[in-house]
Amino acid sequence: MNIQNIRADLAINAANKYCKNLDNIKFIGITGTNGKSTTAIILKNILSDFGYKVGLIGTGKIIFENEILSDENYSMTTPAPELLYSAIGKMEEMGAEIIVMEVSSHALDQERVFPINFHIGIFTNLSPEHLDYHKNIDNYFKAKCKLFQKCKHKIINVDDPYGETLFKNIENADACATVEHAENKAKNIKDLGFWGLYFEYCSAKNAFEINSKLPGKYNIYNIILAIRASEILGVSGEKIKESVEKISSIDGRFNVINAKIKIIIDYAHTSSAFLNLLKNLYSYKNTRQNLIVVFGCGGERDKTKRSVMGEISEKYADKVIITSDNPRNENPESIIEDIAKGMKCTPTKVIDREMAIREAIACAKPGDIVCIVGKGPEKYT
Predict the structure, then answer these.
(1) How many CA atoms lie within 13 A of 118 on its CB side?
(2) Residue 79 above 80 pLDDT?
(3) Contact indicator for 278, 312 with CB cutoff of 8 Å
(4) Residue 102 near residue 36, CB atoms below 8 Å
(5) Where does the chain show beta strands of DSSP type E?
(6) CB-hemisphere CA count at 13 Å for 293?
C-alpha cells in the first residue's frame, strides 16, 4: 500500500469515527493561493443571511453559525483528519446544511478531504507558494486541481492564467472574470480606494450593481466567485446584493484604522498578495503621503519569496521596516537578511515585532499610511 492510500484511509477512518453521513451536507471547497478566506467569509455570510445553517472551516477559525468551534491557537487552513472530521461531526449534530471550506494544497496532496464529495468547488488564482513542499509550481497546480475531480459544480476565475488552463481542461465549469465574454462577470468597475468598490455583476440569472465596502480590486474576484456559488444554491440576486453590501470588513484583510495616520492591517503573506496590497496602497496615496510598511516572512517555509517581497516593498513603500513574523525554529535575523537581499537600499531592521510597529507609527506624519503586513486577526503572538 502506498502512502497516498494510507492517508486516504486515515481520512476515511476519521470521517467514519466522527460523522454519520457526509452526503447529507453540501460541501463547498475553495482553493487557490490568495483570496480563499475572503471568498469563504463572503459566501458564508450570504448563505447564512438567506437562512441556511452554515459552517465555515477556514484559516485560523472553525465556525458554525455564530459559534466558534476552534480554540484561540488554531491557525491552520485545512486541519488534519482527526480535527477536521471531529469539527464536521459537531456541525452535523448541530444541523449543518452547508459547510464552506478552504482547501489547501497540502490537504489535497495528503488526501485529507478524500471522503468528501464537494457540491461546489471554487478556484481563486495561483502564484508561487509552498514550493518548499511542492518543489515546483506545476506540482502545486496539480495538487489544487485534485479538488475539481470530485465536484458537482466548478467555479473558476478565468482571468487568472492557471484558472484559464483549469477551465479548459475540465467539463461543465462556470467561468468568472472581468472580461466581457465571461458568462459570469464584473463590469463597469470603479475602484473607490479606501472606500471600497463599485461594479455591475452580470450572469445568466442576474444583473445588479454592487457597492462593496471592501477595498482593493482583487476583492472583485472574491465577491463574484461567492456570488456565483450563491446563485447555484438558489439565493436570489436581491438577497446576494443585500448581504454583500452589508460586509464592511473582514478580519485581517485590509482592515483600516482611521486616525491622524491611516493604519492598514493585512494578512498578506504570499508574494502575490503582498504585491497586490502595496500596489493598491501606492495608487491610493497622494504625493504628500508616505507609505510605511512593516513586514516579515515566516520561518521554515519557502525561502525563495523572501527577497522577492523585499524587492516589492522597496518599489512601493517610502519606508520599509523588516521584522519577525512567526520564525518558528529558524533564526529571525537570518530571515530578515534573506528579505534584505532583494533590496538595493538598507532597510530598517527591528526583530521585535511590537517595537517595529511602534517605530513605524512614531515616524509617521499626520496623513501618512502605515501598513502592517503578515499577522492579521490572530489572538496570540
Answers:
(1) 24
(2) yes
(3) yes
(4) yes
(5) 26-31, 54-58, 61-64, 67-68, 98-102, 118-123, 151-157, 173-177, 184-191, 197-202, 207-212, 255-258, 262-266, 291-295, 319-322, 348-349, 369-373
(6) 27
How far is the C-alpha of 217 from the C-alpha of 225, rounded, in Å?
A: 14
**pLDDT number for residue 94:** 97
**Residue 317 grid coordinates:** 513603500
Q: What is the 3-state secondary structure (H, E, C) of 172-194?
A: CEEEEECCCCCCEEEEEEEECHH
HEC assignment per residue over 6-32: HHHHHHHHHHHHHCCCHHHCEEEEEEC
Q: What's the average model confidence in pLDDT over 250-259?
A: 92
CA–CA distance, 128 with 301 (Å, rounded to integer) = 12
Q: How many CB atoms lie under 10 A from the CB of residue 362?
A: 8
Q: Mapping DSSP to helix (H, G, I), strand (E, B) and coil, where does residue 262 land?
A: strand
> How far out from the chain centre does Cα 278 lie?
16
DSSP 199: E
**What Cα–Cα distance (Å) separates residue 283 from each residue in 126, 225, 264, 279?**
24, 25, 14, 6
Written as nine digits, the cell of 242 is: 443585500
- DSSP class of 147: G
pLDDT at 124: 98
Q: At which residue does the C-alpha cell 537578511 appear?
A: 337
Q: Cell digits for 126?
A: 495561483
Task: Find out whether 299 and 339 touch, Cβ atoms under 8 Å.
Answer: no
32: left (phi over 0), alpha (psi -120 to 50) or beta: left
The confidence score (pLDDT) of residue 179 equals 83
With beta carbons less than 8 A apart as the criterion, state whether 95 and 132 touch.
Answer: no
Of 84, 54, 174, which Cα lies nearest the Cα of 122? 174
Does residue 377 have a pLDDT over 70? no
Q: What Rg, from alpha-carbon coordinates, does the chain have? A: 21
Residue type, 256: V
Pairwise CA distance, residues 33 & 103, whole Å? 10
Nearest-angstrom CA–CA distance, 41 and 20: 26
| Contact predicate 140/126, CB 8 Å | yes
Contact of 232 with 204, CB cutoff 8 Å: no
Q: Can you give the pLDDT at residue 182?
A: 86
C-alpha cell at 253: 484583510
Residue type, 14: A
